[in-house]
Amino acid sequence: METLDSFQQNRRIIEDFTSNTLAGFSSEFGRLVYLASLRDLSTGVYEHAGLEAIYPYEAVQQALLQCHEELFIRILEMPLEKQDEDLRLYLKTQVQKSGKVAERWQTLQAYRVLAPTDVPEYLRDLFSSNLHVLLEMIEAGEVMAPSGASPHQRPGR
Q: DSSP character for 153?
């Protein structure tokens, strides 16, 4: 019975978090960046004062980790063209131009911290490889061509 109660509580936390927090982001990458920012990199602990004020600490940890993993997998399951579109949508929300942000992410390999802690290494590698290619294209001013076609320069570049 305790497992069912725990499951239901985690579901409530996830519903609360997704409808009240994550719904405010226009892109999956925006949601992923936000979720990753809640995690302390040295401890792997998520911090969300609003949720922790309402729900038990351990339940919040489990729920945020589950959200993080599900969102990460959802992005990986998107076709590369959709990942490109979603990443560009996220980068448009940044203060600097997309190409500048892409360059910084490439230099620092900042995208590596977006992966949840417990995902298998091969998924981390796939994610990093995808982001590396997409960021190079954005930095170079290229757009992803439809499936089967090759990428091309943006007009006026």
A: E
76-95 residue pLDDT tens: 999 999 999 999 999 999 88
Dist CA 58 CA 53 (whole Å): 12
- Bridge pairing between strands 142-143 and 152-153: antiparallel
- Domains in the chain: how many in total? 1
Residue for token pair 């892109």: 27
The answer as to whether 7 is a domain residue is: yes
Please give the Cα distance from 142 to 134 (Å, whole number).
9
Confirm if 150 and 137 have CB atoms less than 8 A apart: no
> What is the C-alpha to C-alpha distance for residues 70 and 82, in angstroms, rounded to an integer?
17
CB-count exposure of residue 34 (10 Å: 0-12, 13-18, 19+) = middle
Residue 130 is assigned to a structural domain of this protein: yes
Domain coverage including residue 126 = 2-147
Tell whether 126 is covered by a domain: yes
Instruction: Report the amino acid identity of residue 12.
Output: R
> Sign of the CA dihedral 114, 31, 123, 51?
positive
Q: 133's torsion region: left (phi>0), alpha (psi -120 to 50) or beta?
A: alpha
Provide the whole-model pTM.
0.85
Other CB atoms closer than 10 Å to residue 40's CB: what's the count? 9
